[in-house]
Design goal:
It contains 13 helices and twelve strands. The strands form three sheets. It has a six-stranded parallel beta sheet, with helices on both faces. The chain has a four-stranded antiparallel beta sheet with strand order 1-2-4-3, covered by helices on one side. The chain is an alpha/beta fold and 378 residues long.
Length: 378
């Protein structure tokens, strides 16, 4: 149920969303919800191997008593929780019907979206296919990721801003590959600034390409997930895929291309302006970065930090924000990001407290000095 749908369906006419949720196989009696899983859906697809997904559901709804017998599921508990579970079963059945296997992450994210009463259905978010390669399909896994992907479709320039592991570059790369395969663009250009993350790489042996390769390796890694490895050299040799440092973009006009700037927090304001003005006809740009991980030398302002103030009101430019809730790496990555965010808040609070204490102490010392001077003169 979306936040716009009424709680009592008897008071308003049915909408398509209401009709989608009318299920003859479901019955709610007081605080009891009964759901029958229709064939040909197998219960193991819904409950997971060794009932792993059922255990996940029980952990997420500790106030609900859950029982499964055959293809019938019964839930007893608070009415509000049962309403969420009722919608959850619908969403999971829809996902299974697409042929996509369920996992613990999909169940937990679906529950989170239903609790937030988002306008988008979890099944619509988790079954959006972007590109497939070697039996693997790349999809958004969170609501913000889907909105980010949709924004790339709808705007010419998109900024994806968020912490590590939120899929900013990965999803942009998937959209670029999909656009190339659909012949919406004739080439993909991947670039990032050559800035060290606290290490010195300038004395690495080899040619210039050997020296810049470590900076561009994450882009190659993502590309190998989406394009057959044997075809990548051919696409790069023909110029259909280009991976280059940001400095190589100066003076160019990039037409009919899907252009991705990664690690944009490590661009200066001048570099950001230079890159954005490379945009040519028939092209699309995606700029990604994490403003909490700036590696620029001291005193240099990040172009990604200030670009929103400059371009926030420009038509056809979109800023997509991702958070620690959108991290799709190991579970610990999300916990690590949140811990650092809490530490940043504590550090900022202490800094402000110290400044306020120093500010209040200075006048007191000045007054004492004035009194001492007056006594001396007396």
């Amino acid at each position: 149920m979306t936040d716009a749908e009424p709680v009592n369906p008897d008071l308003t006419p049915a909408t398509p969303a209401d009709e989608r949720r009318q299920r003859p196989a479901a019955a709610t009696v007081g605080s009891l919800l009964l759901r029958q899983v229709p064939p040909p859906t197998e219960m193991v697809a819904l409950l997971g191997p060794r009932d792993e997904l059922l255990r996940t559901l029980e952990r997420q709804f500790p106030l609900v008593d859950t029982h499964v017998r055959g293809n019938e599921m019964s839930f007893a508990g608070p009415a509000g929780e049962l309403e969420i579970i009722d919608g959850l079963v619908d969403e999971l059945l829809t996902i299974v019907a697409t042929g996509q296997p369920l996992n613990r992450d999909a169940v937990e994210r679906s529950i989170g979206m239903l609790r937030s009463q988002t306008a988008e259905r979890p099944a619509d978010v988790l079954t959006l296919n972007i590109v497939s390669n070697r039996g693997r399909t790349i999809r958004p896994k969170t609501l913000n990721q889907k909105r980010y992907v949709d924004a790339i479709d709808q705007h010419t320039v998109v900024f994806g801003i968020g912490p590590a592991g939120t899929g900013k570059t990965y999803l942009a790369m998937a959209k670029a590959v999909a656009a190339l395969q659909a012949k919406q663009v004739s080439r993909i250009i991947l670039t990032r600034p050559a800035v060290e993350a606290g290490e010195r790489l300038g004395f690495l042996p080899g040619t210039l390409n050997d020296k810049i390769d470590p900076y561009l390796r994450p882009l190659y890694d993502a590309l190998h997930d989406m394009v057959s490895p044997e075809t990548i050299p051919r696409l790069m040799a023909s110029g259909q895929i280009e991976v280059a440092p940001l400095a190589y973009m100066r003076g160019r006009s990039l037409n009919d291309a899907f252009i991705i700037l990664d690690e944009a927090q490590n661009t200066s304001s001048e570099q950001m302006k230079m890159f954005l003005t490379r945009l040519g006809f028939g092209s699309k740009m995606v700029v990604t970065g994490d403003i909490t991980q700036v590696d620029l030398p001291g005193g240099t302002k990040s172009g990604l930090r200030i670009v929103r103030d400059i371009l926030g009101d420009v038509d056809d430019i979109h800023f997509a924000e991702l958070t620690s809730h959108d991290v799709v790496r190991h579970r610990l990555v999300s916990a690590i990001v949140e811990a650092y965010e809490r530490d940043d808040v504590r550090t900022e609070t202490r800094r402000r407290g110290a400044e306020q204490a120093a500010g209040s102490a200075r006048p007191a010392r000045s007054t004492s000095a004035q009194l001492s001077a007056k006594e001396s003169r007396a």
